[in-house]
Amino acid sequence: MNPTKFWTALAGLAGLAAAAGLAARPGVAAGVERAMFGNTFDRNMVSPETGLPAEWDIKTGKNVKWWADVGSQAYAGPVVIGGKVFVGTNNDGLRNPKLTRDRGVVMAFRAGDGSFLWQMTHEKLPAGRVNDWPQQGVCSTPYVEGKRLYYTSNRATLVSLDTEGLADGNDGPFTGEETRDPTDADLVWEFDMMKELDVFPHNLAVSSPLVVDGLLFATTGNGVDEGHINIPSPEAPSFVALDATTGSLVWESNLPGDRIFHGTWSNPTYGVVKGRPQVIFPGGDGWVYGLHAKTGALIWKFNANPPGSKYVLGGRGTANEIIATAVLHDDKVYVGVGQDPEHGEGVGNLWCIDAGLEGDVTESGRIWHRGGTDFRRTISTVAIHDGVLYAADLSGFLYALDAKTGQHFWTHDTLAAIWGSPFVADGRVYLGDEDGDVVVLKAGRTLQVLGEYNMGVSVYSTPVARDGVLYVLARNRLFALEQGVQGPPATPRRIDSAQE
Asked: Which residues have C-beta within 8 Å of that of residue 197, sequence separation ≥ 6?
């Protein structure tokens, strides 16, 4: 397996979209500024931002506010909050010459001009690619709330950082950072899921966490061994909740246990349905689980693989794990299934599920379904706006459907593989692809392509918007795009690997 591009979609994936989430939710403190993958706790890839650019040219600098180099592969984010932009990447940017070799990295930039602020780095796991695939870096899109940033490292640790780095001093309680320059991170706590929970991450732990009412929710990455047959730790949890202040474990769930197909690579979604707070975890067995947010007890579960489906590595398989993140909208869950894209294209399924039921709701909870030749494997998260659902599949198609009924409105072929997710803002749909193009379409029930703009390298992440600026994370460069500005043309980049 070669997941070089796979983790982009997982981290952002799976997308990789994030902006500030300001709306209040039941049981969630109002007035607190947040940023995360999918914009809000329901993970819907929609933003209220306006005044965004509908066109740009990175070669001339038209509508390019700034750009900044990251590593050679950047898979997580961006998230934009508090005047800063955070991304996950690898160490080929070598921002600190003292920290050589392959590492996972979280970088912070100033949103106003793209200046580099600080970074956190993590050495690779000694087992190598079975747990921590080379050169992939940090593939978890951070969750940020106030002055705290949370993510999953390449070492399968859940991490809390101070958003200001060490520039304002070491605030503790942890004071043993590897390096302590002003451009280094300020670590608050770190929870090792391999050490504490016996988790065996397959290839990489990538979960983009949520923090709700003081609890951090994440998936663990637990999966199969290098032979893709045995699960070394079937009793280890796939889903966990930690105290966000201290990093201590609150609850764990080992669903789906020994039924994991490959790995556990999706992200949690939170919402209150019929007065009951629940966290929704898509599993590595192709089931969707709704759990009590406070305890982890099962509320409902749904099998997202139709009867008779069979899991086979490669394009012949008809059963899939779930890599996409579930979206909770109007008490319904929307999610598609897929496999590691290196397995190729194949049969997929897109579901609309009633989240207000209990028990096994595979039959009773099904509202509508699209699959077979009508929807292929996906690792993308949907966006829902004005009653229209936008969903992309790995084969390169973007679909517009009626969110309530699944009725088909239109299909757009990008002519390239899609790893990220559609992002809706300012009356438009933005979507990147493997050829490095970002297509801009008019949002609505009628297909209208407004333009397509190349970013120089592949775009596997999802655009986000903040304060009238559109942020696009390409594979090795972060762009800030703003209407009416003339910025620096993007020059070709040569990257010398930091790996020894």
From this structure: 220, 236, 237, 240, 249, 252
